[in-house]
Amino acid sequence: MTDDHNLVIEYANRFEAIAAEGFEGRPYRDALVHLAQHVTAHPGLAPRVAHALRVMIGFIEDSDRAKRFGPKVAILQEAVGLLEERQG
Predict the structure, then answer these.
(1) 28, CA 20 to 30 Å: which among 6, 37, 69, 82?
(2) What share of the chain in percent tops pLDDT 90?
(3) Which domain of life is it from (predicted)?
(4) Helix axes 2-23, 45-63, angle to 10 degrees
C-alpha cells in the first residue's frame, strides 16, 4: 500500500512540475496529455492522482489570495479533467 501511495504522490508531483513549466510560459500540453495517458493505463490510479491534484489545487488556492498562481491552478485543473475523461 505504501508503494501505491508513493506512486500517487510521484505522479501528482510530475503533474505539478508540468504545470510549473506552463506557468513559466513553456509549452506543457503535450507533456500533460502524455502523462495522463500513462497514469490512466494503470487501473484505479487515475482517480487517486486526480484526488491528490485537487488537494494540491486547494492548498495553492488557499495560500494565493491574489490569484497569482491562477494559470498554474488552471493547468492542474486541466490535468484533473484529462484524468477523469480518460477513465471513462
Answers:
(1) 6
(2) 86
(3) Bacteria
(4) 50
